[in-house]
């Protein structure tokens, strides 16, 4: 946060004003002032974290299981200890930092996010929620607040590759997926070991329904609607389902000079038609569904050789899992037709699935109340991005808080959220957590 924004936030009552909200249960506990995070420290930690994997474009490339990922995790462990948390690494490689509650018999409330990034990503996706969760814990420690429930700040491993850490905890990770190769070049199994997890004890990371009292995650919106409509806080109503496949197109590699055009089995030509077909099929029905071919490689990859094989990806997203399946059926049928045109074949191998997840209505209400307490505007909205919260939603009441993304840019170096908006989000996280902790049904 620069001086001007920090000053404006204070003047606007966001950082240190008396608790002027609904004077509900929280005011009974905290008198006339509810706690606030240290916004300057939070934004300083975000800046410090952005050094790990910094790229020349101004963002980060902090692929899961890379050296930058590991070094950033060491930095996070230090912050956690400063916040009087007790961090451990679970068997799946997630960082779990605990803080006792007044009632040790209660199930823990989990909150956190991830710090791995996509290739050439930004400094805010995952990092905002991760640094804010630690900041919330530090604020509680400094203010001498002990919650009823034990707390656990979680930094999930390999969110970007497909929620690998959180799905290991929710029991959705299959043994076959451990052999998937991540963008770092390591398999998931190698990556878990690299981060300090323990494949032999992987099952010990699992939690069952009822093991967790609730889950909260703060994140940047990654789209542009909050900024466009001047809304401070997004309250996530549901997170899209995501399925990803590796698609292999097999043709026949041959001489690019001597093979006539009508005798080619060009895998890249078929793949190009496939990319167009994905776009056409996904846009042929109404709705918010999206489909993407995000990676493609032609083999053997020489200017004078007709590509004999192409390996690409297919990703489909929607809030409705059945719609994803219908689109997929249409796309595979079209791929077969495309292959027939030039004697190529298509094979699909599913990489992973994130199931669509609605948030908990009570959590939505608590987040809305926390925003009101802070005199912030809020809106209920869907999430088109995937989040670890969707794995946690299968185990416990889940709530997600969004803060605006400038120009809606994400998964790119120009991703940016304003420091004052981040501080708002962290304070909403803090107050929603305290409200949930106190709520009689939690
Ligand atoms: O891909 C996603 O939606 C998320 O940012 N991992
Ligand atoms: Mn994220
Ligand atoms: Mn992301």
State the gist of this model.
This protein has 442 residues and is α+β, with helices and mostly antiparallel strands. 34% of the residues lie in helices and 20% in strands. Bound molecules: (2S)-amino(hydroxy)ethanoic acid and manganese (II) ion (2 copies).
What does this 3D model show about the protein?
With 442 residues, the chain is an alpha+beta fold. The chain folds into 2 domains: 3-239 and 356-438, Aminopeptidase, CATH 3.40.630; 242-354, Alpha-Beta Plaits, CATH 3.30.70.360. It is 34% helix and 20% strand. It has helices at residues 3-11, 25-30, 39-49, 67-82, 127-142, 164-170, 188-194, 225-228, 267-282, 321-342, 361-373, 389-392, 419-438, and strands at 86-89, 95-99, 109-114, 151-156, 214-220, 233-239, 241-250, 254-255, 290-292, 296-299, 305-306, 309-318, 345-354, 357-358, 378-383, 398-403. Helix 5 links the parallel strand 3 (109-114) and strand 4. Mean pLDDT is 93; it is low at 1-24. The structure holds (2S)-amino(hydroxy)ethanoic acid and manganese (II) ion (MN) (2 copies). One manganese (II) ion (MN) is lined by residues 114, 125-126, 159, 219, 387.
């Amino acid at each position: 946060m620069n001086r001007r924004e920090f000053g404006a936030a204070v003047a606007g009552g966001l950082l240190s004003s008396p608790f002027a909200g609904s004077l509900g249960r929280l005011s009974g506990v905290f008198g006339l002032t509810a706690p606030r995070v240290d916004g300057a420290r939070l934004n300083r930690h975000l800046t410090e974290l952005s050094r790990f994997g910094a790229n020349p474009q101004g963002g980060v490339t902090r692929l899961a299981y890379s050296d930058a990922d590991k070094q950033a995790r060491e930095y996070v462990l230090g912050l956690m200890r400063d916040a009087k948390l007790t961090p451990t690494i679970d068997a799946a490689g997630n960082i779990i930092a605990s803080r006792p509650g007044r009632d040790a018999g209660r199930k823990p409330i989990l909150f956190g996010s991830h710090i791995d990034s996509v290739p050439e990503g930004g400094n805010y996706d995952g990092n905002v929620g991760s640094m804010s969760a630690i900041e919330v814990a530090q604020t509680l420690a400094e203010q001498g607040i002990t919650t009823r429930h034990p707390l656990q700040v979680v930094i999930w491993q390999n969110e970007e590759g497909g929620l690998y850490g959180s799905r290991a905890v929710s029991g959705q990770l299959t043994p076959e997926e451990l052999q998937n190769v991540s963008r770092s070049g390591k398999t998931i199994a190698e990556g878990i070991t690299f981060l300090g997890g323990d494949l032999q004890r992987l099952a010990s990371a699992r939690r069952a329904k009822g093991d967790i009292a609730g889950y909260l995650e703060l994140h940047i919106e990654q789209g542009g609607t909050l900024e466009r409509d001047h809304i401070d806080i997004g309250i996530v109503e549901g997170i899209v389902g995501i399925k990803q496949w590796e698609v292999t197109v097999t043709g026949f590699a041959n001489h690019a000079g001597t093979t006539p055009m009508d005798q080619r089995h060009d895998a890249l030509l078929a793949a190009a038609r496939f990319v167009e077909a994905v776009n056409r099929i996904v846009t042929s029905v109404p709705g918010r569904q999206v489909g993407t071919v995000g990676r493609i490689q032609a083999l053997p990859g020489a200017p004078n050789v007709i590509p004999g094989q192409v390996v690409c990806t297919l990703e489909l997203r929607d809030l409705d899992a059945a719609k994803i399946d219908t689109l997929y059926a249409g796309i595979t049928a079209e791929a077969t037709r495309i292959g027939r045109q030039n004697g190529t074949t298509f094979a699909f191998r599913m990489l992973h699935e994130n199931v669509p997840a609605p948030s908990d209505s009570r959590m939505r209400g608590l987040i809305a109340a926390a925003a009101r307490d802070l005199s912030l505007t809020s809106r209920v909205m869907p999430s088109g991005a995937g989040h670890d919260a969707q794995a946690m939603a299968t185990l416990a009441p889940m709530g997600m808080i969004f803060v605006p993304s400038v120009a809606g840019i994400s998964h790119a170096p120009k991703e940016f959220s304003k420091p004052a908006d981040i501080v708002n989000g962290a304070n909403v996280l803090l107050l929603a957590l305290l409200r949930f902790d106190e709520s009689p049904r939690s």
